[in-house]
Each structure stands twice: as C-alpha cells, then as structure tokens.
Amino acid sequence: MILVTAFGKTPNELRDRYIKRIKTMMPFEWNEIPLKKCPDQRPSQLLPEEIKFLKNASPFFLLDADGKSFDSNQFYRWCFQSSERHLVIGPAVGFHQDFYKAALGKISLSPLTLTHGLAHLVLAESIYRSVCMLKNHPFVK
Length: 141
Known about the structure:
This protein is of the alpha/beta class. It has a single domain, classed as 3-Layer(aba) Sandwich (Alpha/beta knot), CATH 3.40.1280.10. A five-stranded parallel beta sheet has the order 2-1-4-3-5, with helices on one face. α3 links the parallel β3 and β4. α1 runs parallel beside α5 and α3 packs across α5.
C-alpha cells in the first residue's frame, strides 16, 4: 500500500489521471488536507491541520529537496521494500521542525524546489511508473 498525504488543495487533472490508473493496479490512497489558513511564512507553531496529522499519522517520509535522491529503478525498489509507504508533501510554507523529528526520513523528487502542482505530478508519475515496473506493464519501456 502506498499512501500520499499532501497539505493544501491543488487541482491537477494530469496527476488525477495517474492516481486513477494506480488505483486500478494496487491499493493506493492520495489524501489532500485543505488548509484553513495558508500563511506567507512558516509560523513557529504547528498549523491546526499539522497537529491533527501528527497525532494520527502512520510512519511517514517527507518529500524534501534535501532528501535522498533516486533514479526510477531505485525509487521502484524503495517503494516496494516495505508493505506500506506513506509519503508527505508539506504545505507551501514548508515543514515545521516537528515533522522532521517525526519522519522516518526524507526523499527528493529533484534538487530543485518545485511548485506544489509540479511536485504532485512528478510524484504521481513516479509512483505510476514504479507500479508499472512491478506489474511488468509496457508503460516503462
């Protein structure tokens, strides 16, 4: 099972197509946590939505530009090394330090800082590619 949690609501038709495809191939969830207030700078305190998430979350990895980088084959192997993977995309203002303390680790989609929409799309495509590799689907050729 792969679970993605994303802070903030980001409409993205192409991402949603990948999500739909993944769900036909394996158990998969993509949850967005809308933020009531989206500050311009990282507040020193956790946002209410972050507090709720940290109280109830399964073990998770953060998506962070400073995280471990993978090529497609390495990401595929990493995704399926464990029976469950939970990936978290932070709010636009970045993660609070409590998230770094609670996370199992950090992974990077790119050394570049990506917009939320682009990060969502790249992650969805990368997961889809990994699932296709697992299922020997022709998409990866």
